[in-house]
Amino acid sequence: MSNPTVPLSAPLYGASLPQALSRFFRKYATFSGRASRAEYWWIALTNIVVYGALGALGFALGAATGEPGPTGGVYLGAGAAVGFGLLGLWFLATFIPGLAVTVRRLHDAGFSGWTILLNLIPSVGGLIVLIFTLLPPSPVGTRYDE
């Protein structure tokens, strides 16, 4: 499924969705090296879609098994546990590789992987990391290659 001419240790520029997913899970906890923008953003899009779908499933199943509330709303029933349980499993399966692909993407843009800790700054930290992941590859990033 992956391009055989590009080794797994190198970034795959112009990766397709299947290639990005394959590399994402094959490099599960690999924080060294670099990841292309395509590899990173296909994973980000996949996570947005999966989180949205599983969240909607949790609310739909919860509403279907819930009871009407006093103000016309619905208390979520036991069915919500199925959707939100699946959402929790997806989170557990993708948390470490998500951090790893973000660190590799920061490397490709020429930043240290420790830059990911900017996410801990309230309000602006996540925005700074977002902007850094949007930047094109930097020749400085080759220092993070194996």
SSE layout and pairing:
Elements: H1 17-26, H2 37-65, E1 67-68, E2 74-75, H3 80-108, H4 125-134
Helix pairs in contact: 1-2, 2-3
- How would the global form be characterised? elongated
Main beta sheet: 2 strands, antiparallel
How many structural domains in the coordinates? 1
Mean pLDDT: 91
Structural class category: mainly alpha
Low-pLDDT parts are none
| Extended strand count | 2
Count the helices. How many?
4
Indicate the radius of gyration in whole angstroms: 19 Å
Percent range for helical residues? 40-55%
Strand content: under 5%
Q: Note the gap between the termini.
A: 23 Å
Major sheet strand order: 1-2
The SSE string, one letter per element, is HHEEHH
Notes on the protein architecture:
The protein has helices at 17-26, 37-65, 80-108, 125-134, and strands spanning 67-68, 74-75. 24% of the residues are buried. The chain is built from 4 helices and 2 strands, in the order H-H-E-E-H-H. It is an all-alpha fold. A two-stranded antiparallel ribbon has the order 1-2. It is elongated, with a radius of gyration of 19 Å. 53% of the residues lie in helices and 3% in strands. The chain has one domain (17-139).
